[in-house]
Amino acid sequence: xxxxxxxxRFAEAINVSRTYLQSIxxxxxxxxxxxxxxxxxxxxxxxxxLLD
Length: 52
Description:
Helices cover about 60% and strands about 0% of the residues. It is mainly alpha-helical.
C-alpha cells in the first residue's frame, strides 16, 4: 500500500527523525517495538505484512 508520504512526513507521523528512518530503511538500525508499532499503525498493515 502506498501512503504517498515523503520520508520526512512519514518520519514525523511515526515520531522519529528522518535520519533514524533512513537508517531503518537502509538496514543500519532496527526499530524498537514501539517504533515498529507506530509504523504498523500508520501503514494500516498487519504484523505479518510489516515483518515480511
